[in-house]
Amino acid sequence: MFKVNGNQIEEFKLYLAKFIALKGISATREGVVASLKFLTTFIKEQLNGEVELLPTSTNPAIYTELRGKNSETVLLYGHYDVMEADDLGWQTPPFVLTEIAGRYYGRGCGDNKGQLLAQLLGIATYLREYGELPINLKILIEGQEEQGSRDLNKLVKKYQTSLLANIDYVLVIDGSKNVNGKNVIRLGNRGLLAFELGVKVATRDLHSGNFGNVSENAALKLIGYLNKCYDFRTKRVKIPEFYADIQPATTQELEWIKKLPLPQGQPGSNMAYYHKLMFEPTFNINGMQSGYTGAKLKTIIPHKAFVRCDCRLVWGQRPELIRRQLEQLYHEELARGELEIKFLAEIAPSKTDSSSPYLMELIKTIREVTGDCLIEPIMPGTVPNYVWTDTLKVPTFTVPFANFDQNNHSVNENISRQAFWNGIEIIYHFLERKKRYYGTNI
Amino acid sequence: MFKVNGNQIEEFKLYLAKFIALKGISATREGVVASLKFLTTFIKEQLNGEVELLPTSTNPAIYTELRGKNSETVLLYGHYDVMEADDLGWQTPPFVLTEIAGRYYGRGCGDNKGQLLAQLLGIATYLREYGELPINLKILIEGQEEQGSRDLNKLVKKYQTSLLANIDYVLVIDGSKNVNGKNVIRLGNRGLLAFELGVKVATRDLHSGNFGNVSENAALKLIGYLNKCYDFRTKRVKIPEFYADIQPATTQELEWIKKLPLPQGQPGSNMAYYHKLMFEPTFNINGMQSGYTGAKLKTIIPHKAFVRCDCRLVWGQRPELIRRQLEQLYHEELARGELEIKFLAEIAPSKTDSSSPYLMELIKTIREVTGDCLIEPIMPGTVPNYVWTDTLKVPTFTVPFANFDQNNHSVNENISRQAFWNGIEIIYHFLERKKRYYGTNI
After folding, report:
1. A424's torsion region: left (phi>0), alpha (psi -120 to 50) or beta?
2. What is the CATH number of the domain that holds B309?
3. Which of A293, B162, B279, B314 could disulfide-link to B289, CB 3.0 to 4.6 Å?
4. Does residue B23 come out as left (phi exceeding 0), alpha (psi in the -120 to 50 range) or beta?
């Protein structure tokens, strides 16, 4: 079994340090060109691949295709763009890779530069040993993931019969391992529909004594409208057909859930817990504001109010249908201009058939390298994997390399040295197993 | 008819300038001692009265009693404390009286130093002319009005059988005239019950994907609770007995309402408009907040949420009863610690019987000085007049001298020169009419 050795450690770390230092901030585009150049050079020199830049409305994606001996073709997906790092609380400079107590710190170490580089280094190390790949690898490295992958589905649609044709399955190396440190394979994720309801009744706040009862209150109106789409008593969403198409968990999925550890201190059964997170949609308020919110009493009638909601959607639910039905529910209010709806996110849920033959192979690979591998049939959060499962219509496995406490999108982002090495080893071993498999079968 | 004349103008203005310059900020107590000294000196030298300082938990009240020839006794109420003046947007220094285009600008010009001084100057001018008063005047000048008159009721209870005994009626010179510039007499006002509902479900916000459905959402819980005390569909308050004791408007009150001008651009009838403002309670949200309220989408589950409500209460409603019933309504949630209620204000409504014989006399006085006088049976806003009508049990007439656009509590506070003069003239004429009345009746 290949293990990262002492000589390689410093070389691998150097690549990561250089990549982290280049920034590549998604929203401001700072360091995007330098990051593209770094990856292009790496792919050319280390993987002997040609790079194609795929333009988007902002940061381009990188595409490369590495030919192997057999026709099996895997798409590896990652992203080079990172969040900003201007929050207070960083204990090391965010764009200087710093190793402390077995962890690499820096913006992007976990999300996703560290995980992306582990893939590329795994392939490079394999190529140094064997000279050629056992299967075809296509690699798509996005530059808009931290802006919600806004052009990804368009891109996939554009190239699905050319660059992205003939793919057997997709490996998404992103996210975090299980809280207890075990590696995990995810087969799907909840989708997301986020929207803001806004009410404006006047041009300024009014005195609640002088105008109370003769002027409308934006906050009261807003909550009235909110009651139309959510039943606060039964905790049920009242958007028509919201629940209609939800698909139940399969026997296999329920079995996998049974094996997942219930987080410490969580009451109830792990079955109920994970069912709620994986197979039930949510209705969530993530922010609301109206009027004066300082410390004193200020007897005003607020002239505007808003509430922002996000619904996590489960398999079977279609965000575009729910969006249309929400608009239909508020048809009259919208027509009268009394309510404004802004849609902020619309990402379909994703799911890969658990009977895919590639799954068992992946589980074995990971178990051989790290000792264990849990299956999460559905990730409770949202990633844009529907572009692979629904648009490209291929099985998709999400295999996070980063530690649970990677602090992605937060201060002191990190990847543990061990997790980084294991990532490299998993990719190397994945290719070695393919070589063995095709070697014995041909 | 007495009219402020050229010689007096500069003298009166000088007093106002000195009083404004002394500050007397309610919350910080800056200039309170100087303001007390100014008033004490004025009362001694100009009204020949002795001053008693009535201690409170913060700024003392000033009390004086001026003996007149007849036993009729009127209490004049005003306040010397002012709001802070640190908002941006003042076009003149707030504590330097500045005259521009027929208005005196400065913090307190309208609320209440200008109106208070007009009373004192009216009495002083009368005394210069006639040497003695026709009736007894008791004057109570509060120093806590801008902190919600927090000790006023206690004070009135303490002195109701001594200093504040044997009062025939109270004149409250505060507030603003009608929007069309006409003087007005107010016979009552709506009360106020203000409270905050707060929910806290965790120690920090959580990721709505990772925890959506397994962790509680503070904003959803809060709105659920809010639905228990307010029906957003029918717009009815669900606090038990909220509406039970409301007293209908009398025929006389309805007749007065009929004569009040409907504000420009206001649809509907003036009857419906003023009925809503004077004889119907409100349920108002003045502020609410939960979660992230910045510009972006942030898919969090907020761990806390609050909503602040103020109810304007009408005649018959008892704030202490409604407060207790609100607590009863949330008995279980409070016992479980799932909800917190903070009561922020509790002021009873006030009402003076419209058949009081003093009313016609006051109307005549004001009409003779200014040409017209409207009657507002109830002021929609809230002042602590219940201390006179309910605790002291005497008729109370609120007679604002200040212009409608006095900008009290705001920047560029002012009183129009004409309104200030008219105030002095009204008090002077009020005393002159008393003299004539008792002269012809004795």
Report:
1. alpha
2. 3.30.70.360
3. A293
4. left
Give the minimum alpha-carbon distance from B25 to chain A in angstroms, rounded to a whole number.
17
Does any CB of chain B come closer than 8 Å to the CB of residue A424? Answer: no
For A334-374, how does the pLDDT look when each residue is reduced to its tens digit (9 = 90+)?
999 999 999 999 999 999 988 888 999 999 999 999 999 99
Q: Note whether B169 and B395 are within 8 A (CB).
A: yes
Which residues of chain B fall below pLDDT 70? Answer: 440-442
Helix (H) or strand (E) holding A124: helix A113-130
Instruction: Name the token pair of A119.
Output: 């893939």
A389: which residues sit within 8 A by CB, 6+ positions away?
A: A188, A350, A351, A352, A395, A396
In the numeric block, the tokens 């403002």 are attached to: B277
- Tokens 């008791």, located at residue: B138
Structure token pair of residue A351:
């799911």
CA distance B23 to A276: 61
Q: Within this chain, do residues A232 and A280 fall inside the same structural domain, yes or no?
A: yes
Distances in Å between the Cα of B128 and the Cα atoms of A417, B11, B192, B365 are 93, 14, 42, 20
Q: Identify the band that residue A441 occupies on the pLDDT scale cut at 50, 70 and 90.
A: low
Q: What are B374-423's pLDDT values in tens digits? A: 999 999 999 999 999 999 999 999 999 999 999 998 899 999 999 999 99
Residues of A in contact with B299 (CB under 8 A): 192, 194, 284, 286, 310, 382
**What ipTM, to 2 d.p.?**
0.90
Mark yes or no for CB contact A223/B224 under 8 Å.
no
Under an 8 A CB cutoff, do A381 and B310 touch? Answer: no
Q: Is any Cβ of chain B less than 8 angstroms from the Cβ of A292?
A: yes
Start-to-end CA distance of chain B, whole Å, equals 23
The pLDDT of residue A210 = 87
The CA distance from A330 to A342, in Å, is: 13
B18 CB contacts (<8 Å, ≥6 apart)? B38
- Are residues A430 and A410 both part of a single domain? yes
**Closest residue of B to A211, CA-based?**
B277
**Domain check: are B167 and B100 in the same one?**
yes
A276 Cβ under 8 Å from any chain B Cβ = yes
Closest Cα in chain B to A305 = B288
H-only helix segments in B22-66: 32-47
Nearest CA in chain B to A292: B287
In a domain, A218, yes or no: yes
- Give the DSSP letter string of B168-196: -EEEE--SB--TTS--EEE-EE-EEEEEE
The answer to whether A127 touches A133, Cβ cutoff 8 Å, is: yes
Of A347, A363, A397, which residue constitutes the final position of a domain? A347
Q: Do B293 and A289 touch (CB under 8 A)?
A: yes
